[in-house]
Write a structure and sequence with these properties.
Elements (H helix, E strand, L loop, with lengths): L10 E6 L4 H5 L6 E7 L5 H12 L2 E7 L4 H12 L3 E9 L3 H15 L4 E4 L5 E5 L4 E6 L10 E7 L2 H12 L9 H8 L7 H4 L11
Parallel strand pairs: 1-2, 3-4, 4-5
Antiparallel strand pairs: 2-8, 3-6, 6-7, 7-8
Length: 208
C-alpha cells in the first residue's frame, strides 16, 4: 500500500543506531515508518543519499535553516549522475546574508524557481518518484553533528501530503526579499497576535 495509506496499516520500526545512514535505514518498505535515535554520526544529506540508493532517480525537497557549499556540491554531483531529477529548497531567509552565492548556485542547477525564502527552523526532506513518496525529518542539519539526534522516515501517508500542500502554497520571492514579505509568505502571523510579530518584521542580520 502506498500514497494515502491508513496510518494503522503502517509497519513501524524503532532503532538506536551507532552506524551509518544505510545501516540505520535498512530496506525501505512501502507505507512503512522508521524512528531512530543516533549519535549524530550521519547527516540529513547522508540519509537522503542512502534512500536514493534504493529509490533510484527522484526529485527532492529540502527544508533547512542554512546550507553550505558542501551540501550544494553534493546535490550537484547527484544531479550530474542523474539521481536527482529536480530540487526545491525551503530555507530561512537569514541564509541570504552569508550564503547568497551558495543559494544562487542551487538556483543555477535546479532553476530560478527552486528556492522558497521563509522563516524556518524545520529539518525536512522529501524524495519522490513514480514508486516512492518518502518524508524524512529529524533534528539533524544537512551536515553531521556528533551528539544525540532523532530521525524519522515515513513512506506515503497524510504527513507527506501535508508537506507537499505547504510547499505548493509558498510564494516565490526574489533573492532580495523584505522581512515583511518573508513573514507573509511563511504565514507566521496567523499563529501569533499582531503585537508579538512587530519586532520580527525586519530581516535578521547574521553576526560574523
Amino acid at each position: 500500500m502506498s500514497g494515502r495509506g491508513a496510518p494503522t496499516a503502517r509497519r513501524n520500526r524503532a532503532v538506536e543506531s551507532f552506524k551509518n545512514a544505510a545501516d540505520c535505514i535498512g530496506t525501505l518498505e512501502k507505507s512503512a515508518g522508521l524512528f531512530a535515535v543516533t549519535r549524530g554520526q550521519f547527516s540529513m544529506i547522508d540519509a537522503i543519499l542512502a534512500c536514493l540508493d534504493q529509490t533510484g532517480p527522484a526529485k527532492i525537497s529540502l527544508w533547512t535553516w542554512t546550507i553550505a557549499e558542501y551540501e550544494i556540491e553534493c546535490v550537484n554531483r547527484l544531479r550530474d549522475d542523474g539521481r536527482i531529477t529536480g530540487g526545491l529548497l525551503v530555507i530561512d531567509h537569514g541564509a541570504l546574508q552569508k550564503n547568497r552565492p551558495v543559494l544562487e548556485e542551487w538556483q543555477r542547477v535546479n532553476g530560478p524557481e527552486s528556492v522558497r525564502y521563509v522563516v524556518n527552523h524545520a529539518k525536512i526532506a522529501t524524495i519522490e518518484n513514480v514508486g516512492w513518496r518518502l518524508l524524512l525529518r529529524g533534528s539533524m542539519n544537512l551536515n553531521f553533528n556528533p551528539r544525540f539526534e532523532q530521525f524519522d522516515i515515513t513512506e506515503g501517508g497524510e504527513d507527506f501530503e501535508l508537506i507537499r500542500k505547504v510547499e505548493s502554497e509558498l510564494p516565490l520571492l526574489s533573492n532580495h526579499p523584505t522581512g515583511k514579505d518573508v513573514y507573509a509568505a511563511s504565514r507566521v502571523s496567523e499563529a501569533f497576535e499582531k503585537d508579538k510579530m512587530a519586532a520580527f518584521e525586519k530581516c535578521k542580520v547574521w553576526k560574523k
